[in-house]
Amino acid sequence: MDFIGENLVPGQLGHFFILISLIASLAATVAYFFSAQKTNPDDKLKWRNLARIFFIAETISIVSIFAILFFIISNHLFEYKYAWQHSSRSLEMKYLLSCFWEGQEGSFLLWSFWHCILGLVIMKKEKLWEAPVMTVVSFMQFCLATMIAGIAFLNLKIGSNPFVLLRNELEAPIFSRPDYLMMVQDGNDLNPLLQNYWMVIHPPVLFLGFAATLIPFAYAISGLWKRDFTGWVKPALPWALFAAAVLGLGIAMGAAWAYESLNFGGYWAWDPVENASLVPWLILIAGIHTMLIFRHTGNALRASFLFILLSFLLVLYSTYLTRSGDLQETSVHAFTDLGMKWQLRTFLLLFLLPSAIFYIQRYKNIPFIKKEEESSSREFLMFIGSLVFFLSALTIILMTSLPVINKIASAFAGEGTELFKPLAFGEDTAFAYNRIQIFVAIIIGLLTAISQYFKYKSTPKAFVTRKLLYPAIASVVIGALILAFGNINYDEYGIGYLGAIWFAIVAAVFTIIANAAYIWIGLKGKLKISGGSIAHLGFGLMLLGVLISSSKKEVLSYNTSGILINFGKESKEKPGENLTLIKGVRTDMGKYWVTYEKEESHPEKPLWFYHLRFETKDGKENFVLKPNAFVNYKGNEGLMANPDAKHYWSHDIFTYITSLPDPEKNKDTASFRTETIKVGDTLFYSKGYAVLDNINSRDNIPQPGFKPTDSATIATLKVYAKSQSLFTMEPLLVNKGGQLSSYPDTLIAENLVVQLQNIRGNEAEFGIKESDSVMQYVTLKAYNFPYINLLWLGILIMVVGLIMSTIRRVQLNRVPVHKI
Amino acid sequence: MKKIHIILLLLVIAGIVGMSFFIKDLTTYETFDSAAGKKDRFVVVKVQLDKTHPIEYDEMKDPNKTIFYAVDQDGKQSKVIYNNSKPTDIERSEGIDLNGYMRDGYFECTKLQMKCPSKYKDDMNAAQKNLPSASNEKKLEYKY
C-alpha cells in the first residue's frame, strides 16, 4: 500500500548513516589496534592514517544522524515514531532539543557525539598515545552505535533505532488507511517535567562529563596494555580534571532542574539516578588526587589505576542501572525498559572484564615505592582523603544497587520461595545515606582544609602549626558564631546526628577559610597556580550550603487554616504539609499570609499559572509566586506541577501545587436568589441569618483601573450562623462609568456567597447563593530553603577551580622535559 | 603493617558499621496478611488500586488525607490511609508500592511509589491510547 504524505527520505538517510557509523567505528577500532600493536614505525603510521579516516567517517555519520533526527523532530514528521513520541507542534523551539534526549536513542547519540569531538581533539593533540587510546574510544563508539542500530539478529533485538516508522511500530486500525497521516496531526509531546530550560543544557553537559571519563580510562588501559605503567598519568591528568569539572557541573545542573521542576522539595533526594552519576564523580576525584600523588612522589600508582578504571566502569554501570528498567521500583526518573537489558549487560561486561583481567594480571608489574610515606606529608593526607571518597562511593553504590541485589538473590533462591524475601529501603531513605555521608563530610572537610599546608615527602611540624594556626582559630570562631546564631537545631534524628552536623559545619568553614588563606599564605596570591585551592574552597562552600540548607529547611505550609485538622486517631502524625487555599481568601501560613489571587493559562497548552500572593505578617515583604501545573495533559489525568520560588540572597521561598479541585465534582449548579432589603433588615439562609449593618460608598479602592470618576459601594453584613459563630461579609459593587459589576464575598465556613447587585436609594439588592462547590481553591506545599545559594556558588567556584587546574596541567605538559 | 593500612582498616570498619545500620533498617516486601503479623513494623506492600471503590480526598476538609482501597498480590483487599495529598495519576497507576505500617483494619501509608504507564511515555500501550481513532478526533476541554 502506498501511504500519502510520508517523507521517507530522511529516514532512509538516517538508516544509511547508522550503518556507516557501525562499520566505520568497528574499522577504526581494528585499524587503531593494529597501529598500536605494530612495532615498525611505517606500519604504525599507515594503520594510524587509515584509522583516522575511519574515525572521521564515524564523526561525519554521527553528526549526520544528529542533524537528520533534528530535522525530523523540528519539521514534525510524525510518520517517524521518535518525533511522534517525544515532540509536538506546540513545543517551543528550545525544547525541540530536549525531546531529542528525552528518548534513550537520542541520549546515546549525544553521548556518541561527544566522544567524536573528544576523539578529534586527541587526534590533533596527542602524539604518543593516540593509537591505543583511540582504540578504546573507537570501540566505545562501536558499542554505542549498536545501541541505535535496531537490527534483529537471531531473535535478538540489537539496539533501538530512532528512525523507525510509527506505522511499523504500533498496531492501530488507522494504519490500514493510506491517508493515516492526516489523522496523526500532533505528537505525544515532551513530558511536561522536562519542559524546563535546565533540560535543554543539563543533558549535553552531563553526557560530555560521561564522555570525558572515557579518556583517562582509555589512557589507563593503554598504560596497562602497552606496559608503560607510568607514562599515561601525565597526559591523562588534565583530562581527568576536565572530566571532573564537566561531570560535576552536569550533576549540579541536574540538581538545579530537580529543584526547579520536580516536587520532592529539594535538589537532592539520593535518587538512584542521581547517585549513579555522583558515584563516578567521587571516584574520579579520588583518582585525580592519587594521580597528583604519583606525579609528585611516585606513590599511589596502583590506586590511580584502580580509581580511574572504576570511574568509567561506574559510568557504564549507571547507564545500565538507569536504562535497563531495573530501577523502576526505586527511582522516580529512570528510563523504562526498551528490551535492551541483555545488550546493556553485555556492554558493561565488554569493558569490565578486559579491565579487570588487565589490572589483576599486571598488578604486580605496576611500580610502587616500598618505603612508607611520612605521616606528616601531603601525599599521606591526600591518600586518606582519596580512600574516604572511594569508600563513600562504594557505600552509595551498594545501597543504590539494592534492586539489582534483590534480582540476583531471587535468581539464586528462586522466585517466590521463603528462602529470600526481596528487601526494600527502610522508612527514611535519605537519612540512610545522610548518616553515613555526614561523617565523610567531616573527614573530607578537615583533610581538604589542612592538606595543602603540608609539603610533599615530609613537613616540619612547626611549619604547619605556624601557618595553620590563624585559619584554624578563625574557623572555630566563625563556625561557633554560625552555630550560636544560626539556630541550627535539627534534632529530628537525635542529638548525636545534630552534633555530627555541627562538626561538619565547622569542618566546612575550616575548608573555606584555610583554602582561601592558602592562596595568599602558600601561593602568594598567584591565582594562575591556585586552581586546586579554589576548587577546594568551592567544595567547602558547597558542603556548607548542603549542610545548612538541608538542616534548616522548613515547611511553611503546615496546616493551620482552621477549617479542618482532624487528625483523629493518627494524631501522633506530624501536621500535614499540604495547605488548601481558597481563591481570594487570605490564609495564615506561619510567617506569611498567602492569598490565591487568580490563575492564568498558557496560550497554547493546558498549562496554568496560579498567582499566590505572599505577605509577611510584619508587612515587610509582599510578592507573588506563580507555581504552574499542567492539567489533564495528553492523557495524563490530573496535574503535573512545576514549582516556583522567590529567591533571596539568603534563602528561597519555594512552593508548588499538590492538588486542584476535581471539575466534575465541583460543578456549580446553584444560582443566586435575589432579595432587596434596607439597612438593619435581615436575610435568611439555610444555616442562619445575616443582618445588613451598613452601606458605605468609597471612591478609592485598591483595584487596578479604578478611576476617580468611578464609585464603589460596600455592604457590611453580620452573619449569625446556627453554629453560634459570628462572621462579617463585605460584598462590593463597583460602578465604572455606569457599568455595574459585583464582587461577591464568599463565606467558606457556611458555603455562602453574597453579592451586592444594585443600590436603589436606601434599598440594596442582594444575590444569595448557597453551594458546596462555590470555591475555587488550590492545595499547595511551601518550603523555606535557607542558604541554597551557597551551594550553587560553591559548585560554580569548584568547577572554575577545576578548569583552572586543567589549563595549568595542559600548560605544564607542553613544557619540554629537560634531562638532568 | 603500614600506617595507611591501619587507617584503611579503620575506615573499612567504619564503613561496615555504617552499612550495618543501613542493613538493619532494611525492610521486606510483604502482603497485607504477612504485614498483619508484623504489626507496627515498617514494611512495603506491592498492591494495585482497587478501582471499585472511590478514592476519598477532600482538600477542603483535610488536604493531608487520602483514603483508598488496594488489592495486594494475593488478592486481599485493604483500606489504605495516606497522610498526604492525593498522588497525581493514582487512578492510572498500574501498580503501587505502599510503604508504611499495617494497623488495625487499615494500612497506614507514609510513602508510596507508583508505576505509571505514562511516566516516560516509552510504554507503547499507553502511547497507543493517544493515537486518534479512525473517527473524528476527540477534543478535550481544559477548564478550571
Strand content of chain B: 25-35%
Number of helices of chain B: 3
The backbone outline of chain A, from C-alpha atoms, is globular
* Rg of chain A (C-alpha, Å): 33 Å
Residue share in helix of chain B: 10-25%
Rg over CA atoms of chain B: 22 Å
Helix amount of chain A, in percent?
A: 40-55%
The number of domains of chain A: 5
**CATH A-level architecture of one domain in chain B:** Beta Barrel
Based on secondary structure, the structural category of chain B is alpha/beta
Placed side by side, the strands forming the largest sheet of chain B appear as 2-3-4-6-5
Question: Strand tally of chain B, please?
Answer: 6
Shape by Cα distribution of chain B: elongated
Verbal overview:
The complex is a heterodimer of chains A (820) and B (144). By secondary structure, chain A is of the alpha+beta class. Chain A has five domains: 1-195, no CATH class; 200-425, no CATH class; 429-552 and 787-808, no CATH class; 568-660, no CATH class; 673-774, no CATH class. Chain A contains 19 helices and 24 strands. In chain A, the strands form five sheets. In chain A, strands 6, 7, 8, 9, 10 and 11 form a six-stranded antiparallel sheet that branches. In chain A, a hairpin with a 4-residue loop joins strand 21 (745-747) and strand 22 (752-760). Chain A is globular and about 110 Å long. Mean pLDDT of chain A is 85; it is low at 561-573. By secondary structure, chain B is an alpha/beta fold. Chain B has a domain at 26-118: OB fold (Dihydrolipoamide Acetyltransferase, E2P) (Beta Barrel), CATH 2.40.50.140. In chain B, 24% of the residues lie in helices and 30% in strands. Chain B has three helices and six strands, in the order αβαβββββα. Chain B has helices spanning 3-25, 32-36, 124-129, and strands at 27-30, 43-49, 66-72, 77-82, 95-103, 106-115. Chain B has a five-stranded mixed beta barrel. In chain B, a hairpin with a 4-residue loop joins strand 3 and strand 4. The longest helix of chain B has 23 residues, at 3-25. Residues 118-127 and 132-144 of chain B have low confidence and may be disordered.
